[in-house]
Predict the structure.
Amino acid sequence: MAANGTTNGSTSNILGCGPSFGDSYFSKVAIITANVAMSFLAILGNSLVVRIIQKNPRMRTSFNYYIANMAASDVLVQFFSTPRIVSDALLAPRVWLITGPFGEILCKLVFFVQDICTAVSIECLVLIAIDRFLAVVTPTRARSTSTKIRAVIIIMTWVVAGLISSPQLHFSVLYTGNNTHHVRCVIDWGSFFPEDAHNKYIAFLVFFLFVSPFVVIATLYAIIFVVVKRRKVPGNETCVKQQLRPHQKARMNVLKLACVVVVIFVFSWLPQVVFLFLLMTEWGWDIPCNMRLFRFLALFLAYSTTMTNPCVYFMFSANYRQGLRKMFPWLGIKYKRSSLIQSRTRSRARTWQTNQTDSGAEANIGGHLVTTAI
């Protein structure tokens, strides 16, 4: 959901803003430093996540495949978004330093790839919620998903993202305004589309990439919360206490992860959605001079999910911490592994299973292992 500052080739009046609207040297340094640091941490964290999944065959589940897909898109988006954000901070939004055919190609590719990666990340959040829902409500069906089906689903996330982002590839052009010598990368819908085509496209992106995913994610995690809360651990009085403690830890980790995912998603993207809404309705795609800082902050928060997502995995998943510990043993990262004490208890509870693998805790009550994150 990129904030396109133009429609039908018109330029935003932000280019006429002077240095008094908050574009000081200090603010430029702060914006560039924050974005470069975020980019470095996002690339490092997501690369570690992909590497851990690659090295651990036990973690090659649907959940972790979606995590790896999202991590790959988060790495890719940083390579395309950070140089643009730095350029915007130094010059002005959408100002393009490279001209000619190569500059035209970059103009089309940068925003196209950036929007594709953003869409893929959000689609993966929905897929993760669906996977967790199936793992809790219908664990047998969740385990029966074949590798081919998972591969098709992952490929389709990129296909769908490419389709909804295709206007960026087709209509992005280099434009030089009448009152400025700056060359800008803008979206020009041409004379074949109505004047409000850009507004309708952005509204569609907001609905498809924010409203709908939020409704789906919140609904599925609410159902998971109810199911896990009501589910009882079978067994007689002597083994209930033994089973209850690891089950409660696993359940709380799943619920915490669910809440964190929803909260981070909403609060990271909400400022950008508000900015786009104001841009379409109140400002007519002319960004007020005193709103440029808000634009950078909204973009920073939206892209900060690429940095915070790996932190969530390492915080709530013992498997990821274990993988990180194996890669960097000198870090002293701890994880706790506990098995069910009595084989008799395992056999009696074998029919009750809650497979919440790698979503922050592993609960296989009645199986051979309960892993709880600490």
Q: What stands out?
A: The first strand starts at residue 172 and ends at 176. Residues 347 and 366 are 7 Å apart (CA to CA).
